[in-house]
């Protein structure tokens, strides 16, 4: 099969679970090129995955060097770089211990298990429009009916509360609840930022009834909002944090971090591939890069949102949502035609989550393309 057969080959051999039009063949930092050689500024970044951009030289070097030494090592043995990565993550995130996974959904599955073990309870509370993954465990705390309901009944039992509604949350949390799952900013919903007292209110409700507060930072973590975690903007310390996406610059990896007193004991959890040598090398290098660029993220985010201010963006660092409505797919298509990749999240919301290494010139060009697309479509 030659390079020009990718559409036919995909249609014939791959299950049609995705809607897509472009093949991305290569990338470098904030830019990608498709199979026809067209260049784009990537404001999707693998859906907030390519935190240091595509093929960042330092990350690529770390992966290649590790691949030349050891690609896989079972967790039956000490894994090179694993303890050092765990140390660094718990330090920057204010937690105590870590456990690694291969994705955000797996990290959230682990959080469900840990919360049940720690509390002896079975039920959870989560929020409308929240997204925590597609495995059967993580799907049970994911609200979107279109992806959840075909697989009912799901376990564990979960009560969904309107995101931002603190009074309803207080009524939902009682002595039977093991934990409350919350995204400090809802990403898949379109970058929805809650009221100022919402996160602290969740903490108080959990403390009152002995439930665990689980912060899903899969999309918001690893510097995306200008801090290592979005919840760090609130001053609230959760019991469990889940990470993935931007943790290893595109290499599949997830992590579960927990406060002191919460940990899996021998035999309670495990994974063949999680926290392998390549993933740890990629993540350690990613953290080193983010440490250098993190101070610039708020400034870049403000530059971007200021240039899109006519559309009332919701923004925190380099995570931005704009309510577009039914024309969102048309805006997305027009932006791609003009060399900028953007993404339509839920409910007609345009989501912008570019690499943290995006330059000011790239921000300016991307903003001008988005503004022109919005103006043209609405006309």
Would you kindly provide a written description of the structure presented here, covering whatever features stand out?
This protein has helices at residues 6-13, 45-48, 57-67, 82-93, 104-119, 136-139, 145-148, 166-172, 198-209, 277-293, 297-307, 328-337, 360-378; strands at 24-28, 31-34, 39-42, 97-101, 123-127, 158-161, 177-182, 212-216, 240-243, 254-258, 314-315, 320-323, 340-341, 343-344, 349-352. The chain is an alpha/beta fold and 379 residues long. It has two domains: 3-55 and 296-378, Aspartate Aminotransferase, domain 1 (Alpha-Beta Complex), CATH 3.90.1150; 58-292, Type I PLP-dependent aspartate aminotransferase-like (Major domain) (Aspartate Aminotransferase, domain 2, 3-Layer(aba) Sandwich). The strands form three sheets. It has a seven-stranded mixed sheet, sandwiched between helices. It is globular. The model has no long low-confidence stretch (mean pLDDT 96).
Distance between the termini: 43 Å
Percent of residues in helices: 25-40%
Instruction: Supply the CATH superfamily name of the largest domain.
Output: Type I PLP-dependent aspartate aminotransferase-like (Major domain)
Strand order of the largest sheet: 4-10-9-8-7-5-6
Quaternary state, please? single chain
The number of distinct β-strands equals 15
Q: Let me know the largest β-sheet.
A: 7 strands, mixed
């Amino acid at each position: 099969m030659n390079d020009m057969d990718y559409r036919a080959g995909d249609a014939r051999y791959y299950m049609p679970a995705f809607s897509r039009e472009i093949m991305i063949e290569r990338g470098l930092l904030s830019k990608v090129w498709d199979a026809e050689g067209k260049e784009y500024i990537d404001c999707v970044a693998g859906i907030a995955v390519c935190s240091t951009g595509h093929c960042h030289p330092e990350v690529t070097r770390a992966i290649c060097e590790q691949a030349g030494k050891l690609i896989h090592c079972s967790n039956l043995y000490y894994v090179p770089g694993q303890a050092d990565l765990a140390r660094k993550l718990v330090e920057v995130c204010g937690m105590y211990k870590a456990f690694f996974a291969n994705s955000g959904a797996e990290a959230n599955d682990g959080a469900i298990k840990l919360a049940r073990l720690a509390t002896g309870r079975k039920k959870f509370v989560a929020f409308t429009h929240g997204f925590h993954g597609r495995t059967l465990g993580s799907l049970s705390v994911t609200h979107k009916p279109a992806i959840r309901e075909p697989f009912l009944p799901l376990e564990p039992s979960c009560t969904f509360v309107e995101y931002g509604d603190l009074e309803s949350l207080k009524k939902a949390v009682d002595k039977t609840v093991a934990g409350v799952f919350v995204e400090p900013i809802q990403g898949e919903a379109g970058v929805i930022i809650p009221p100022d007292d919402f996160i602290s209110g969740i903490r108080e409700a959990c403390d009152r009834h002995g439930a665990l507060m689980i912060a899903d930072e899969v999309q918001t973590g690893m510097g995306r909002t200008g801090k290592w975690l979005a919840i760090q903007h609130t001053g609230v310390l959760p019991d469990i944090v889940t990470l993935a996406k931007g943790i290893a610059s595109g290499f599949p990896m997830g992590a579960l971090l927990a406060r002191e007193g919460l940990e899996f004991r021998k035999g309670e959890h495990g994974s063949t591939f999680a926290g392998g040598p390549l993933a740890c090398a990629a993540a350690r290098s990613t953290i080193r890069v983010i440490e250098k660029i993190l101070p610039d993220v708020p400034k870049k985010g403000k530059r971007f949102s200021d240039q899109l201010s006519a559309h009332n963006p919701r923004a925190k660092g380099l995570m931005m949502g704009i309510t577009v409505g039914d024309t969102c797919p048309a805006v997305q298509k027009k932006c791609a035609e003009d060399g900028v990749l953007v993404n339509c999240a839920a409910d007609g919301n345009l989501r912008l989550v570019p690499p943290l290494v995006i330059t000011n010139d790239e921000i300016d060009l991307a903003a001008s393309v988005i503004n022109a697309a919005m103006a043209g479509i609405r006309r």
